[in-house]
C-alpha cells in the first residue's frame, strides 16, 4: 500500500512519500512507536530525540576536527565527513545567490569560509529515483581519483534527519536524508560557456590544452585505474576549468566500474542526447568506446563551435577538416616553422575528433592511441619553436 500524504503541511508530498518508503523497508519503522513521536513534539528539536542523535553523532566535535579548511584541501588525505550545519553556513543556507549550476542528480553551490577559501558543494536531490546507490557510486568513484585533469573530492556529507509524519493513521518517524559532495572549486566554470560558433573565447594553445587535458583525464579513467571507470556522460558541461584554463572531468554520477568484461549491455538511461554513440542508442551497449564517441563530439565542438558537429553530415571528412584547419590557421600569429607545426596540430586534432565519432565503435581509436598522436604533434611544435629561435614550446605530456 502506498504511503499516505503526511499531515505536516510543511512536507512536500513527493518528499514524504520517498522518506516513508525508506522507513517501510527498515526495522526502525516497525519499532518506532507513537510515544516517541509525542516526545519529539513535546520536547522540540532540543529535546530527547535531538539529544539522542547528538550522542550518536557529535557534530560539534566533528566540526572542530574536519572543518578547518586546509584539512579539507589536503591532497594526501582521505575525503573527510563534513557536517550539514557547516555546509549551510558556508553556502548561506544553499541560497540562490550561491548556486553555480545543476546536473542530473544535484545542484552545485559555492561554499566560502571565513578566510575566503572556496569549494563547490554538490547537494544531491531529495527526490524519487535518486537514492543511496547514485550517491555512493559518485562518492566511491571520486574518492579513487587523484589526477590533475579530474575534479577532486575534498569532503562529503550524509546526514539523516528524523521527521514526524502520518502513515496509515499513525504518527511515525520518517527519515529525511541530506547528501552532499564537496569538490574543489573551478573558478572558470564549465567548458560549455566558452564554446561558440566563432571559437573566439580562447586561442589555439588554450584550446589545444583543453583537448589534451580532457584526453589525459580519460586516459586515467580507462587505463591507469584498475578496474577502469567509464564516465558515460562526457560533455562540455561536465568539463570544469581552473584559473589557468586547465580542464578537469566532473560529474561521475552515472559512471561505471568495469572488470574483465569490456562491453556490457544495460537497461539504464545514460548520458546526454547528442553525445551518445549509435551502439548505445540502438542496442544499449556500453564500453570504453562510449566515452571515445563523446570525446569526439567535444573535440569537434571545441574546434568548430556549437553547430560544428552538425556540419560533418553536410560535407566530406576532408572538406570539414580543411575548413576547420583554415579557420584556425588564419588566427595563428607565429613564425613560419611554428605556424606550420601548429597548423598540422590543428589538422591532427580535427582528424582525431572525426575518427572518434565513427559509427563503427571498432574503428574508433583507443584513448592511448589518441594521447600518443597528440604527443607527436607536441614534439614537432617543440622542434619548430627551437628552430625559429623562439621560446621553447611548453608541451603538456605527463
TrEMBL record:
Belongs to the protein kinase superfamily. It comes from Aegilops tauschii subsp. strangulata. This is Protein kinase domain-containing protein. Residues 94-378 form the Protein kinase domain. The keyword Phosphoprotein does not apply. GO terms for molecular function: ATP binding; protein serine/threonine kinase activity. Keywords: ATP-binding, Kinase, Nucleotide-binding, Serine/threonine-protein kinase, Transferase. PANTHER family: C2 CALCIUM/LIPID-BINDING PLANT PHOSPHORIBOSYLTRANSFERASE FAMILY PROTEIN, PROTEIN KINASE DOMAIN-CONTAINING PROTEIN. Pfam families: Pkinase. It comes from the Eukaryota. ATP binds at residue 122.
Amino acid at each position: 500500500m502506498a504511503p499516505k500524504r503526511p499531515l505536516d503541511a510543511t512536507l512536500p508530498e513527493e518528499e514524504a512519500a520517498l522518506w516513508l518508503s525508506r522507513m517501510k523497508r527498515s526495522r526502525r519503522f516497525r519499532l518506532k512507536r507513537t510515544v516517541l513521536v509525542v516526545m519529539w513534539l513535546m520536547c522540540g528539536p532540543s529535546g530527547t530525540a535531538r539529544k539522542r542523535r547528538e550522542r550518536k553523532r557529535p557534530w560539534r566535535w566533528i566540526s572542530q576536527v574536519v572543518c578547518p579548511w586546509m584539512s579539507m584541501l589536503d591532497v594526501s588525505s582521505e575525503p573527510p565527513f563534513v557536517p550539514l550545519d557547516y555546509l549551510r553556513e558556508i553556502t548561506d543556507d544553499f541560497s540562490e545567490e550561491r548556486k553555480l549550476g545543476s546536473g542530473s542528480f544535484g545542484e552545485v553551490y559555492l561554499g566560502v569560509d571565513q578566510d575566503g577559501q572556496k569549494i563547490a558543494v554538490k547537494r544531491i536531490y531529495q527526490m524519487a529515483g535518486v537514492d543511496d546507490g547514485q550517491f555512493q557510486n559518485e562518492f566511491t568513484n571520486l574518492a579513487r581519483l587523484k589526477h590533475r585533469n579530474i575534479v577532486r573530492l575534498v569532503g562529503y556529507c550524509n546526514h539523516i534527519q528524523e521527521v514526524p509524519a502520518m502513515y496509515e493513521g499513525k504518527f511515525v518517524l520518517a527519515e529525511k536524508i541530506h547528501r552532499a559532495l564537496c569538490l574543489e572549486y573551478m573558478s572558470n566554470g564549465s567548458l560549455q560557456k566558452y564554446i561558440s560558433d566563432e571559437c573566439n573565447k580562447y586561442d589555439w594553445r588554450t584550446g589545444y590544452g583543453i583537448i589534451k587535458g580532457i584526453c589525459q583525464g580519460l586516459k586515467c579513467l580507462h587505463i591507469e585505474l584498475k578496474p577502469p571507470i567509464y564516465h558515460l556522460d562526457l560533455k562540455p558541461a561536465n568539463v570544469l576549468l581552473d584559473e589557468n584554463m586547465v580542464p578537469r572531468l566532473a560529474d561521475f554520477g552515472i559512471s561505471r566500474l568495469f572488470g574483465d568484461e569490456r562491453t556490457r549491455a544495460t537497461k539504464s538511461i545514460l548520458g546526454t542526447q547528442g553525445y551518445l554513440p549509435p551502439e548505445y542508442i540502438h542496442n544499449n551497449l556500453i564500453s570504453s568506446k562510449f566515452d571515445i564517441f563523446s570525446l569526439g563530439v567535444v573535440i569537434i565542438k571545441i574546434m568548430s563551435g556549437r553547430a560544428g558537429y552538425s556540419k560533418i553530415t553536410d560535407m566530406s571528412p576532408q572538406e570539414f577538416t580543411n575548413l576547420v584547419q583554415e579557420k584556425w590557421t588564419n588566427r595563428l600569429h607565429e613564425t613560419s616553422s611554428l605556424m606550420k607545426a601548429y597548423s598540422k596540430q590543428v589538422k591532427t586534432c580535427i582528424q582525431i575528433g572525426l575518427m572518434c565519432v565513427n559509427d563503427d565503435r571498432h574503428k574508433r581509436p583507443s584513448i592511448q592511441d589518441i594521447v600518443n598522436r597528440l604527443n607527436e604533434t607536441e614534439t614537432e611544435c617543440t622542434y619548430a619553436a627551437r628552430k625559429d629561435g623562439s621560446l621553447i614550446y611548453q608541451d603538456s605530456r605527463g
